[in-house]
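The protein record passed on below.

***
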Amino acid sequence: MLVLLHTSPVHVPVFDALRDAAHPGVTLRHLVAEELLARARAEGPEAVAAEIRAVLAPAVAAGASAVLCTCSTIGEVAEQAGPALGVPVLRVDRPMAEAAAAAGRVVVVAALESTLEPTAALIREAAAGRRLELRTVLADGAWERFEAGDRDGYLDAVAAAVDAVTEPGAAEVVVLAQASMADAAGRVRGDVPVLAGPGSGLAAAVAAAR
C-alpha cells in the first residue's frame, strides 16, 4: 500500500487518475491534513515535523510500504520522517527537481510564497555543483483563486505567470512548484518546457513501495 499525504483534498482525484492511467492495480491511501500547511506557513515547515510523524505513524502501522508527500512546502520535513517511521517517505517534487537541475537555467513558479524556497533549495541540491541559474516567481493572485475554489481562474493565473517569464532566453525550463498547478502547463502559450511534479513523483513512490 502506498500512502499519499496531502494538505488539500483537491489532490485526491488527481493522483487517483494518475494511478489509474499509469499504475493500475496499485493501492493508494489518501491522508488529508490541511492544518499542516496552515501551520507551516505561519511558523515554518520544521514546526510540523512531529505532527507529520503522528499523522503517518498509524498508516505505516496499518501496512504502508511507502509514503508520498504531495505538498512542496512540507516535503523536506516529511522526507526526513522516513527513518523514524521505518518506510521510505518521498517528496513529490524531487524527480521534477532533478530534471530541472539538468537543464541549467530554471524559473520556479509558485502560487504560494512558502513553496518557493523549499523548491529552489531542492533544485540547488539536485544540481550538485553543476551550472545553475535559478529564479523564483510568485503567481500574483493565484492562491486566492485556489482558496476560493476557482480552479480555472487559478490555473489561468499560473499560466499567465509562466508566460510572463518565458521570453526568449529567459529559461531553459519552468518548474511548477505545487502539485495543484500541474494542469496549468496545458494553458501556457510559449514553447519552453514546463515541468510539474505529480506524474514523476507518483512513479517514484510506486517504485519505492514495491
